[in-house]
Amino acid sequence: MAKGTFGERLKRERELREVKLEEVASATRIAPRFLEALENEQWEKLPGGVFGRGFVRSIARYLGLSEEDLLSEYDLAHGETDTAANQKPEERIPSAPKWIPAVVTLLLLGALVGVFLGGRYAWRAYMAHRAAKKSSSVVSLPSAPAKNLGAMTPANSPAAGTEKQLPLESGIAAAKSTHLRVVTDGEAAGDAELERGRNLHFSANDRFELSAADSAAVLLELNGQTVPPLAYPAPPVQFH
User: Fold this and answer.
1) In this predicted model, which residue has the larger pLDDT, 117 or 86?
2) What does the DSSP assignment read for 73-137?
3) Rounded CA gap, 79 and 115, in Å?
4) Rounded (10°) angle between helices 67-78 and 51-63
């Protein structure tokens, strides 16, 4: 658009409606000097940014003109097609060095590994403490040597009646299911789950050891004598 075209049209539209500059200024609250600057296309006298376009929109609304058409003419005359073009570009924040994300990732992984290992150690310590509290006592009975080592057989098994009686005979029953481990004369005789109500019979020459996950659930009889519950350890019992 040739210089002066926008300003001349703006002035002509105002005069055709017989509206004075002061009336436009009073209705739109735009200073008269800014209205004169628009009609004379003295852009340097206008405030920057979006103010110029706001003035044009207010004038077009007051005079009954198309706001978009008048704004397009203003943009062409003023040499701008986008108000953002006159704004100062935002300064970009410099990006962080590439090694920083890698270090942060490694630190996070290290923290996760530390939490995992610490949790596993704490869990093992807790389980060891719990197992120590539930660990059974060891019953050791000296007696005369015998020829063989008894096997783990149920008390009502036919084999139990046929085996030769050894110096140390034990009967075990469970008030409730628990894991049981039996060692006779230093050798493992049984390591399995003892179901509730089941009775077992063991024989040994001179030593009988019993451990249970739940010591209070185990009932023990040695050579016909009842042993206190394993949850309350007692000193070794000796029979002669």
Assistant:
1) 117
2) HHHHHHT-S-GGGGSPPPPPPPPPPTHHHHHHHHHHHHHHHHHHHHHHHHHHHHHHHHHHHHPPP
3) 63
4) 140
In whole angstroms, what is the distance from residue 169 CA to residue 208 CA? 9
Contact 146, 185 (CB under 8 A): no
Using one digit for the tens of pLDDT, what is the confidence trace for 31-65? 999 999 999 999 998 887 788 899 999 999 999 99
Q: Looking at this protein, which amino acid is placed at residue 139? A: V
**Tokens, residue 77:** 């005359």
CA angle 173, 179, 183 (to 5 degrees): 75
| Chain region(s) in the chain for CATH 1.10.260.40 | 5-86
In this predicted structure, the answer to whether residue 108 has a pLDDT above a threshold of 60 is: yes
For the 5-86 domain, the top CATH level (class) is mainly alpha
Residue-averaged pLDDT of the chain: 75
In the predicted model, is pLDDT for residue 150 greater than 70?
Answer: no
DSSP string, 159-220: HHHHSPPPSEEEEEEESS-EEEEEEETTEEEEEEEE-TT-EEEEEESS-EEEEESSGGGEEE
Pairing of strands 178-184, 218-222: unpaired
**Beta pairing partners, 153:** 201
Tell me if 7 sits within 8 A of 36, measured CB to CB.
no
Measure the CA dihedral 170/174/180/186, to 10°. Answer: -10
- Give per-residue pLDDT as tens, 200-210: 887 888 886 87
* 175-190 pLDDT per residue, tens: 888 887 889 888 898 8
State the pLDDT at residue 94. 55
